[in-house]
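INTERNAL AUDIT FORM
Audit reference: QA-55
Scope: verify that the stored structure record matches its stored sequence.
Auditor: D.O.
Record contents follow.
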Amino acid sequence: MNKKRSRTGFKFSSYEDEVKSPFDKLFDIFKELITHTSGDFDEAMDWLKSLDKEYKLTDENYTLDDFVEDLKKKGYIREEIKPDGTSNSNITAKTERAIRKNALNQIFGKIKKNGSGNHKSKFSGIGDEQTGDLRNFQFGDGLDNISITESLKNAQINHGYDNFKLTENDLIVEDTHHKAQMSTVLMIDISHSMILYGEDRITPAKKVAMALAELITTRYPKDTLDILVFGNDAWTIKVKDLPYLQVGPYHTNTVAGLELAMDLLRRKRNTNKNIFMITDGKPSCLRLPDGSYYKNSNGLDRHIVEKCYNMAAQARKLHIPITTFMIAQDPYLQSFVEKFTESNRGKAFYTGLQGLGEMIFHDYESNRKKRIR
């Protein structure tokens, strides 16, 4: 298959051996472009037209105009009339769901599903998830956990065929684990550095957030996920807002993000709580009691970083581990993350953008499988 690399960094190839319809082939590319353009349909189509011109994605049998018409018919875009009487196209909730599913398949698609998707505790006995292990019946065990086949076998062994009877001592049950919920807050840095230096760091962060949200809602529906962004301040966003997320002209107020994350988790009744933080820069901003901002982008400001260390220690006292995904490689920033992680007794990963989603997935799964103490 003939592969080429475009200016966007995507790889395109001929579709001779593909079985997808012309619409599906273009829709796969469209989902990527609409994510990169933060939901801007017109910009995404401009990119698609350029790619079509260069890579011959369509032919006379199925044109880009046909594709747009199909997007409308299938409910992926809607026309909106502006006050001046002109119209524009916007993506719909159906497209937002398709983007999240696409992100999940891209990032987590090679991971095998295991189990029903809830968090096991170390306590066995009266529970609601079968483990496959067998044990003798105990007072309080539910009747629906009794293994009839194994119990009858046990009775035959204990009493024989001639004097067959089934007693409480013969009963065998399939062991169960209690299920536990997990509450997670995902913090995304949207400071200006996330698009500096010729590298788009915000799009991979958005994809990870969408994939994690789709994973939790489809596989672990009893878990909770809150997503917040932090620049000069911090605020929560909804899952449906992720495709439209953009970087702002902000500094990095890590303290505000941590304060909000811990406030969100304090309200959760779940025992298991954790914070994931995706950032590429140093903390450079604080909001003062009078509402003004203290900012310093030059190096690591002692006043700011000490506040971060204090927040990390507070989270540790609340039994909230923080996992930091630092997508910058500067040694002095790594030293900050090391001390921050030590204060929290959490974890840190120093990574580029490649593999970020897989790392977060594995860490989430690892935390999920930890048993309640």
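Auditor finding: record pair retrieved intact. Residues 1-8, 110-131 have pLDDT under 50 and may be disordered.
Action required: none
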